[in-house]
Design a protein that fits this description.
Layout (H helix, E strand, L loop, with lengths): L4 H19 L22 H12 L21 H13 L11 H12 L3 H6 L12 H16 L17 H23 L6 H23 L3 H22 L3 H29 L5 H22 L3 H21 L6 H27 L7 H20 L3 H20 L2
Helix pairs in contact: 1-8, 7-8, 7-9, 8-9, 10-11, 10-12, 11-12, 12-13, 13-14, 13-15, 14-15
């Protein structure tokens, strides 16, 4: 990506607010410093000197004497300036207080020197008429909330927005989902420039961006319903772009494998029916195939819930079971049944380990789940050794223990 979509949106909002300045009267006095860019270590210019003068005059001295002190400010943003900015940011509740004088710092500066918030300053303190159906307070709340969403900051609580005009949480959630989907689509296109449907992917991404800006305009105008609908359209088009660029491999792979396993199960079912007609033993194959069908149902449910990685794992388990059922046609019970159960429990153990690991990464309490899974792994090893020694009774006993341990682990979550 040449430029982040979130940066583009920031520019878009700035243009809208600047446009309001051109058509509405203002009564607030402009700030003494006109900041038009981010200030940080290494930056040189008149804006730096103005910032130093402001800090020196308001109790955040660059230096007590010499270079940088009152009357001896410079146009260079160095360590002393950064340290003073950090103190000023902490004093005004800005986070992170890093010494980077960016959008949030500029907004706080404007608010402090003018006595009103940035949007209200631009619109004019005396202006109280509506703008495209949205009053000043509502517009201010919308822009503040939108910028906070884009920067990850907590939206300001004052002035309190009009609860009717302020954008609903669902609108902001839809905006975030659309932004995330567009980011993913851009990455997918960058990662797969030679995909067969890359032009379709780019067209869908362009549509997503157009819907996004349409939603932003609706949000600024106070039309939350239209804004949310446009953001949802943007997310849908971005998802189409991802699919065309083959960026979401888990989703596509799961969809393809579920279809393949469904065909495989039909094939094995026909083979079992033919074997039964020929008088061959099919009970073991039928039992294993039933397990394969159950796994495939679970895979389809996971896919519908958009848990594509889980759907892929479950579909692979269903495929293994279907192949086991095919191999079991004509075989009777005994060790082969236990071997099949061993394979199933190994697969269940792997799935349980993933769930426990995922829960642990998320900070959830997993209790003794890992210990139970270690026990299950040990029982499965013992069962495998027993099968190698043709000791079916010992193998079954250990398989029962392993199954119980896996169930105990999952109950801990």
């Amino acid at each position: 990506m040449n430029i982040s979509i979130r940066l583009q949106i920031g520019v878009f909002i700035s243009v809208i607010v600047f446009g309001v300045l051109l058509v509405l009267p203002t009564t607030s006095q402009a700030a003494s410093c006109q900041f038009t860019r981010d200030l940080q270590l290494g930056v040189v210019g008149a804006e730096v000197k103005c910032l130093q003068q402001y800090l020196n005059a308001n109790g955040f001295a660059i230096a007590e004497t010499g270079v940088g002190s009152a009357g001896k400010e410079t146009s260079e943003y160095k360590l002393l300036t950064e340290a003073a900015v950090v103190k000023w940011q902490k004093a005004n509740g800005l986070s992170p207080a890093s010494g980077f004088f960016g959008a949030k710092s500029r907004a706080k500066y404007t608010e402090l020197v003018s006595g009103v918030s940035p949007v209200k300053q631009v619109l004019g303190a005396s202006t109280s008429t509506s703008l495209e159906g949205s009053n000043i307070t509502a517009l201010q709340a919308q822009v503040n909330a939108l910028m906070a969403q884009l920067t990850g900051a907590k939206p300001p609580t004052t002035p309190k927005p009009d609860p009717v005009a302020a954008p609903a949480k669902s609108v902001m959630s839809s905006l975030k989902d659309a932004l995330d989907a567009i980011d993913d689509a851009e990455d997918a296109i960058d990662d797969n420039p030679d995909a067969d449907e890359i032009e379709d992917a780019k067209d869908s991404l362009d549509d997503a961006r157009a819907d996004l800006y349409k939603g932003l305009r609706a949000m600024i105008a106070g039309d939350s319903a239209k804004a949310e609908a446009s953001f949802n359209d943007a997310e849908d088009n971005a998802d189409d772009a991802i699919e065309s660029a083959d960026g979401d491999s888990d989703k596509k792979d799961a969809d393809d494998l579920i279809s393949e396993v469904d065909d495989l199960i039909d094939e094995v079912e026909d083979a079992i029916s033919e074997a039964d007609d020929d008088g061959k033993s099919t009970s073991q194959a039928e039992d294993i195939l039933d397990e394969a069908k159950d796994k495939l149902d679970e895979a389809e449910s996971a896919y519908d819930d958009e848990e594509y990685a889980d759907a892929l794992d479950l579909a692979q388990e269903a495929e293994d079971l279907a192949n086991d059922a095919k191999e079991a046609i004509g075989k009777k019970g005994g060790s082969s049944n236990l071997s099949s159960r061993l394979d199933d429990l190994k697969s269940d153990l792997k799935s349980a380990q993933k769930k426990v690991s995922k829960a642990d990464d998320a900070g959830d309490d997993i209790g003794d789940a890992e210990d139970y899974l270690d026990d299950a792994d040990s029982y499965l090893d013992d069962a495998e050794d027993a099968l190698d020694d043709d000791d079916d009774a010992k193998a079954k006993k250990n398989l029962d223990k392993a199954e119980s341990a896996i169930e105990d682990a999952l109950r801990e979550l």
